Amino acid sequence: MQRVQRVAKIDAPPTVQIKKAYPNLDAIFGHVFSKLIGEPITPNKIAIFYLVRILFQTHFGFRHQRTTYPQFTVEEKSEIFQWLYSLITSNDDLTYDSFRMIIRTAFHSNRDIFLNFISAMEHIGSGESGVNFGIEDEFYTHKYAKDPTGERMTDDSEGDLKFSSQYSFVYRWLKRVLAQYSKTTSQELFEINQMMRNWINKASDDDVENLKPESISTRLGTVLPREIDSSLRARQWVARNIHFMHKNPRRADPHDHILNYVKLIQKFQSDVYEAHLLESIVHVQKKDVESAIKAMKIFFIDSMFQLNENMKHLYKTHRLAVPSKIPLMYAPILEARICRWFGNFTTARSLLIESVQQAQLSGDEICHQMGNTELHTLDIIGCGPILEDRTAQNLNSEKNQVSEDQNDRRIHRKTLKHIDDLHGHVRCGPCCAQTVDDFELVAELDSYGMMLMLMKSIVEGHYRLKYSRNAETGMACSLGVDQQERGRKVSDYGFALMSSNMIRNGLFRQAKTTTSEMLSGNLEAKNKGEEDVFHTESFAVTSANLAYSYAATGHYPEALATIQKMKTQFPEHLTWQSARHTTICDSVIRFEISFMMNKFRECHSLINPLAKYSQLEFTLRKALLLSASGRDREAILMLKNLEIEDVHGQIRRHLQLASCYTAQNSFEKAQTELDKALELSDGTTFKHIRTMIGRRWATMMMHRGSHTLALEQIIELPESIEQFGSFIERCCFYLTAARCCRMTGHDSRPWLTKLRVMNLRKVWPTMEKMVLSEIAALHVDNGLMPDKKKLGQVIRMYEEVECDYPGKCHWLLL
Where does the signal sequence lie (predicted)? Predict the structure, then answer.
């Protein structure tokens, strides 16, 4: 019976094995790693390979025979690796005689390395042996020949430098050479041998360029530029351009040149994923949003494909790669930043929410912190280049989205205002766990988070000027060596924000000192040219603030010279984010100059660029022009219809309305507007607002005829005017004080003297006429100081100014 059962089992059909079907990722992504391109094979590369193999055999022995030479010490290894690195990274192909002289200089008679190398080369040159890229198994297995005592030869001593290490540049270079060699055909092997024999037997430098036949290339007959002819150099070229695109776009290659090289890299070296990232950056600078997002998506799709580290799974499935979840977390952040730059806030918010949720599920604190930082940036800054309170405006543009997200605890789980150092966090992002770069990134994000909260308090008018508290403001980020220049970028942002807040509070002289110091520290190094110079957006903001400080102190030629320098340093076609600040600064300062010259037609063309950056700045200047042109009702209506959430902007609107009403002799309405401005200023920390309100109230009372009341106000303002007043503000104050003093029987010459020394003839000629009128009023027959001779001189000076600059002075509108 048992025999029958055995026979039945033998005759039974084989069991059907059902295999689980899932997509072949290698096929989906185009067999990226199977098509990996290695190091281009040249005579120099072959000679370096033979030298490395001889060094390896000298140190460990040949096959299973122990070496007869003493092993290299750590110092000797360090010197050897330096020689190898110099040879590998050399941009020029050497002749055999030159290469031989270098090897003789490097090793001489040390352990017969030079003699063994010459012997191997001469065998190839004479045709006795062919090029052999074989290398001992011990190079990969780390199991070397035993010495007579039975101990295994290793290089695992503490602090030693290892030949076969994943961190070794030489080891990775060898793997690329072997990867390229493994793809060569029999015909190509023959050509390699012929090329090597010609190189050894020819010593002329002119023949070196002709020793690399195109048929050896695995790139479909395409000979790539040397900068990108291997994965190593392609990655270096991409990394260099990405670095300079952020630091100094003038040092990067031209955009068309970059895009051409990127297309070659994507076609022939598909393992260099970073090329898509560089392409996205270039498209952002070209303002091609769709292409930028498309390239960014391809970058993260390709980076999802990683080598399969599970060898058991690899043997069973024959699949070289597995997907990674990291792009699911980090891809939405960069895509959201692109959307934010171009004003698509709804899409940006959705992407950031997705990133934060993925980070929370994975426990990635850095990704979570990045997402929250970008969310706060979206709410506080948006895409505007001007420091205004845009929170409500940005949120109102996406009401439906916000109503769903405000109740999501995961979005607001960590408030940036209370971020502390992260201790014991588990990393699963792009950086290795517990690396220096990891914690530098955490410190950088902490600083950015605190600066965002600082910026929010500045635009809300609640921040007090205490910049020495770096731990609370985030304006300093001490990172030691700081190879990634993270701390430098943080401090640059801090200086730019500090100077902007000084301008916002009327501290023009302090802003001038701060910006000058920052820009003077960004000079070109003597030996490196522009390599160490930063031309980032923070320096564009700082340069603009320097121009504002010059203009606010009456030095308009210096301000225009600064703007002209900005146009050279931050051109529109290279960095439009920085060029925005140049455009705004140029429009604001030139408008101010043209308005004082009564060139109103020119003013209209100057304020047009402001419309797309700030409706507030455009409307205030447009209303000023309308009032100066006699269209007061239209100007007032425009100001009243302007929707403003920024408290500083609301105060400026009330002050402008008060000036318009003063010029119309509507003093009660002007008083109402000043009271509203004063009420808003009570809840803020702005230092110069009360001074501006007080000066306008005094001017209004002077124009109303209440000179005594105006003079009482004027007596309280000189110190604050000198500290916080701009050039125009001080001119208007001095003229108001001079007229009030004259009308109340007091000596007005001290105020007129201050006006005369401000060189108004070249800057504000119509104000010069007002000053001459006040001087003439002193010297008339019924004046305080009658003098016909001086009166005649003043009249002649007035006529000269009137002849060159006719028109009325609209100082009551300012």
Answer: none
